[in-house]
Amino acid sequence: MNKSLIFTLLSFFLIAACETDPTDRKSFEWDLRGFWESNDTSVYKGKLSIEHNTITVSGYDEAQTRYNQDDARRPFNNIPKGIPFSGYSEDGKIFITRGGVLQDGIPYEIHSEQFGQYRLLYIIFGGRTETLLRDSD
After folding, report:
1. CATH code, domain carrying 126
2. Which residues are bridge partners to 108 per DSSP?
3. Whose CB among 2, 6, 22, 36 lies 3.0–4.6 Å from 132's, allowing a Cys bridge?
4. Is residue 53 part of a domain?
C-alpha cells in the first residue's frame, strides 16, 4: 500500500469521527423499547413510548392528584407530554435531552422474569417506585 492511500484513508476516518456526535450513537436498551403503561392508575395514569433513541411521555398530567402533594415525586413532571424527546439508557438510568440539555438520569430496573404476558419496569421518582407494564413481544 502506498503512503498517499494510507494518508487518504486515515484522513477520511478522522473527518468522519470529528463530524459524529458521540451521543448520537447512544440508544435505549433493547428491553426498554416498547409501550409501557402505569400499573397503578389510582396514583398516576401515564404511558411511555420508548423507541431506539426517543421517548414520548403521555399522561402524568398536571391535573392528576400529586403523590403526597410533592411535584418532585411526580413522574416526568418536567417533561412536556406527547412530544418525542431524544434519549438513551445507561447504567440503570434513563436520560432525556430537553431543549438541548441532558436532564438528570431517572433510575430504573426491568424485572427479569415474565409474569404471564407482561414484563415489569420499575422507575424510581423521588424515592417512590412507579411500576409500569409492557405486553410481551
Report:
1. 2.40.128
2. 123
3. 36
4. yes
Residue 43 resides in a domain = yes
Tell me, yes or no, if the pTM score tops 0.90. no
Distance (Å, rounded) from C-alpha 88 to C-alpha 108?
A: 12
Contacts of 89 (CB under 8 A, 6+ apart): 27, 28, 29, 32, 95, 108
Q: How many domains does the chain have?
A: 1
> Is 5 inside a domain boundary?
no
DSSP alpha helices (H): ranges in the chain?
A: 3-19
Q: Closest Cα to residue 95, out of 28, 22, 25, 20?
A: 28
Give 16-54 pLDDT, tens digit per residue: 454 444 456 799 998 899 999 887 777 778 899 999 999
